[in-house]
Amino acid sequence: MANIKFVKEGKEVIAADGANLRIKALENQIDLYTFMGKMMNCGGYGQCGTCIVEVVEGMNNLSPRTEAEKKILRKLPDTYRLACQTIVNGGAVSIDTKPKR
Asked: Which of 93, 97, 98, 100 is 20 to 30 A distant from 36 in Cα terms?
């Protein structure tokens, strides 16, 4: 089991190993998107870059960056991930939603 802490929202979520970060956030009413992201997101296919989050702690408990992430996030810090492409593999993770770019 994984423990996902959404820092800004002050909310903790329990997830099964292998859970998708975007899906767990949306299931728990965590708002991942800015105004434009709400209108233009790709629905979780790793094509738009609107679900960017920052991993504050627990990067080792997440899947490696996908090729889509490497392309979209190439100019951003290694701690930035696309929630739709991130799989939680157990342990504790702290996530900052809508980080400054």
From this structure: 93
